[in-house]
């Protein structure tokens, strides 16, 4: 099983970055140009991140592979704890999938938090699939 942002998302982000870049060039106000240009750079960086980090999460019979900006990380099933955490932000409930590795003497452990944007699916649904298939994906 694989989870990643929808393919259209980086395309939309890149189009938004291009549009904001054109607006930044057309703006006469210097502070406005800086703000709109910064927004264009941010959208462009998000587009590149979502295009490069595909898929974000891969489940196999041996464990999970997570792709982050720091590279790929393999998490064996025996070391990973899965949990969905729900928090309230801006008046709405936001769910995130937490992948937490048990600390051992050689490793401080790792916490990876993936949201709906990262997975392209509801984190609670992803957790159900991972728990159901943990033994034989």
Key traits:
4 helices, 137 residues, 4-stranded antiparallel sheet, 7 strands, alpha+beta, 2 domains, 42% helix
Please outline the helices and strands.
Blueprint (H helix, E strand, L loop, with lengths): L1 E2 L4 H19 L3 H23 L4 E4 L2 E6 L2 E6 L3 E10 L2 E10 L9 E5 H4 L3 H11 L4
Antiparallel strand pairs: 1-2, 2-3, 3-4, 5-6, 6-7
Helix pairs in contact: 1-2
Q: Look at the structure and give the mean pLDDT.
A: 86
How can the largest sheet be summarized?
4 strands, antiparallel
Strand tally: 7
End-to-end distance: 8 Å
Number of helices, where a helix is a run of at least 4 consecutive DSSP H or I residues: 4
Strand order of the largest sheet: 1-2-3-4
Q: Strand-residue fraction?
A: 25-35%
Cα gyration radius (Å):
18 Å
* Alpha-beta classification: alpha+beta
Oligomeric state as shown: single chain
Low-confidence regions: none
Summarize the helix and strand pattern as letters. EHHEEEEEEHH
Number of domains: 2
Shape: elongated
Helix content: 40-55%
Describe the structure.
A hairpin with a 2-residue loop joins β2 and β3. Helix content is 42%, strand content 31%. α1 runs antiparallel to α2. Strands 1-2-3-4 form a four-stranded antiparallel beta sheet, with no helix packed on it. It has a three-stranded antiparallel beta sheet with strand order 5-6-7. It is an alpha+beta fold and 137 residues long. The protein has two domains: 51 residues; 57 residues, no CATH class. The N and C termini lie close together (8 Å).
């Amino acid at each position: 099983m694989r989870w990643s942002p929808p393919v259209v998302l980086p395309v939309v982000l890149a189009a938004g970055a291009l549009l904001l870049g054109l607006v930044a060039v057309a703006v006469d106000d210097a502070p406005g140009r800086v703000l709109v240009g910064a927004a264009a750079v941010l959208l462009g960086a998000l587009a590149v991140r979502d295009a490069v980090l595909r898929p974000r999460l891969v489940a196999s019979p041996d464990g999970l592979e997570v792709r982050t900006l720091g590279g790929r990380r393999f998490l064996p099933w025996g070391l990973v704890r899965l949990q969905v955490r729900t928090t309230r932000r801006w008046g709405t409930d936001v769910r995130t999938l937490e992948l937490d590795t048990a600390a051992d003497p050689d490793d401080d452990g790792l916490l990876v938090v993936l949201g709906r944007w990262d997975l392209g699916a509801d984190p609670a649904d992803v957790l159900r699939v991972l728990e159901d298939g943990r033994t034989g994906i």
